[in-house]
Amino acid sequence: MKSLHFLAALLLLSTLSFGQDITRKIDSIIKDNYKKNPGVGISVGFINNNKEYYTAYGNLDTESQIKIDKNSIFEIASITKILTSNLIAQAVIDHKIKTTDYIDGFLPKEYILHENLRNKIKISDLASHQSGLPDIDFGKLIEMNQQQPISSVTEKTLVTIINDCSQLKDYGKYRYSTIGYTLLGQILEKVYNKSYDEIIRSKIIDPLHMANTLTMDFNVINRTIGHNSEGGIQEFLKWNITAPAGLVKSNASDMIAFLKAALNKETAVGKAAMITEKIFYKDDKREMGLGTNIMTDDKNTIYQKSGDSMGQSSIICYNRAENWGIIILLNQRNSKMRQNLLNEIYDAVLK
Fold it and tell me: What are phi and psi of 186, to 5 degrees?
């Protein structure tokens, strides 16, 4: 009996030591990056076998002495799409829709699909970026208003884009789409007869107690100040009608709560996440689930989604089999930095 107790204690110490070693390595990588880039604040959350770890460097902004921590608010931008696709999967579980349903009967009545598009585009096509629909021209919008490029996009804008489309130029091929996720949000609103905000709050934010995940009022004291790629101050984006594609503001603590739920097969979010992890698109360059990139090597399958606003960058990643997940948040638009950090952490620690 004593030997069994000794073995259990030894195993516990080994597990604790392993967890501490991982977190020290992650912290070292993040700290080294901050030393090289002191103008870029960063917050990182990591979950390993249901244990949470956090590290952060920098201040809320260059004029503030308040340090960034796990509760500091960032733009998660297109990581919002993972939340929206999880809601789509929850709607499947609720028998509101099927991923194979055509979108025709689920769109607001203002949309009138051209006869060439009818009974062609499936819900899963929208969620895996292969619908072939035209998209919003972000380049032109940024030229018009760099601080709030999406402010001029209205429901009328979207209706015109969809109703004027008579041909799907690349249906069945991957092309990243903001309008696709906007339509998914509107489909959710129709099947639940609630606003997108009400749906995401009732099915993700409130059940997971993500109290610092914001969809409306972003004027909070723990908000980070975003910076564009040249270092200039950038406002938080107001996504308006395109909210399901990139609106959400959150922090490392709340996103770890989401990851914890996604990794738990018994939760509503976890059951939905497993649907989003199925392969809905595949070519020589990528595999796509619903809203998530799927990457595999000899030993691991990784689910990943990045987000870049005009002033911040973020990335989320998890491994269901190994039961870990990570969120990286930067207060500057720097897609190269956030990807390099994830790659370094993965190669040095998680792989």
Answer: -70, -30
